[in-house]
Specification:
By secondary structure, the protein is an alpha/beta fold. It has a single domain, classed as Uracil-DNA Glycosylase, subunit E (3-Layer(aba) Sandwich), CATH 3.40.470.10. The chain is built from 8 helices and 8 strands. It has a 6-stranded mixed β-sheet, with helices on both faces. Strands 4-5 form a two-stranded antiparallel ribbon. Helix 1 packs antiparallel against helix 4. The structure holds uracil (URA). The site of uracil has 11 residues, from loops.
Length: 225
């Protein structure tokens, strides 16, 4: 930021304001969404948080019980682990924009307990074009980081294999640089050395995403004029 001219700084501030206002408008319209059946069981729409002008957008699967109550992504145990790994990768939530592929909790009742379930193809077909795609269009992230396989399958490639392809960069229709990382909820199900190993991979992959965002920011624009 310090080597920018005053004009460049003013232009960047204008873009920042525009993006924040546009995302806030979209957020407001999402509050009444009845696009799929999940609106009947949700407590709150979990739209996204963080810096709408960030070059780095993180995308998880969908809200769980805590997120449904608080209206914010990643506020439960998985969110604590994500925050910890972001910290070791040199980032805080205010440096990034954080959202999910689906904005309302998908759950199922089994044996008297309400459990999270993956969103159905129909729910994704309603939700992604309305909200996630518009979020990406406004924010135009230089780097997208998918948290877990479901997000990578929606954003990068429907055949994405998280175990084989995490930590590598791909081009996708929403960004020239997209990477997928292990989901912290998956890491929390591991124990001992395996838990430590996977936590280390998450930190390394988040660091790679951050470094790519910094590099992409200083890339010359690929237009002639
Ligand atoms: N897991 C997700 O993928 N998203 C959240 O918001 C919380 C947990």
């Amino acid at each position: 930021m310090s080597d920018l001219t005053a004009d460049e700084r003013a232009a960047r501030e204008g873009v920042r304001r525009q993006k924040c206002e546009a995302v806030a408008k979209l957020y407001a319209s999402a509050q009444d969404c009845t696009g799929c059946g999940l609106h009947r069981t949700r407590t709150r729409v979990v739209f996204g948080t963080g810096n709408a002008a960030s070059p780095l957008m993180l995308i998880g699967e969908g809200p769980g019980a805590n997120e449904d109550v608080q209206g914010e992504p990643f506020v439960g145990r998985a969110g604590k682990l994500l925050d910890e790994c972001l910290f070791y990768a040199g980032m805080k939530r205010e440096h990034i924009y954080l959202t999910n592929i689906i904005k309302c909790r998908a759950a199922i009742e089994e044996g008297g307990r309400v459990q999270n379930r993956p969103p159905t193809a129909e729910e994704l077909d309603e939700c992604v074009p309305r909200w996630l795609r518009n979020q990406m269009e406004i924010i135009q992230p230089l780097v997208i980081c998918c948290i877990g396989a479901p997000a990578a399958k929606v954003v990068i490639n429907s055949n994405f294999s998280i175990m084989r392809e995490r930590g590598r960069f791909f081009e996708c229709s929403y960004s020239s640089h997209a990477i997928a990382v292990l989901h912290p909820a998956f890491i929390l199900r591991q124990e001992g050395a395996e838990y430590q190993r996977l936590r280390g991979l998450l930190i390394d992959d988040l660091k790679a995403a951050k470094e790519r965002a910094i590099a992409a920011r200083s890339e010359a624009p690929k237009t002639l004029f």
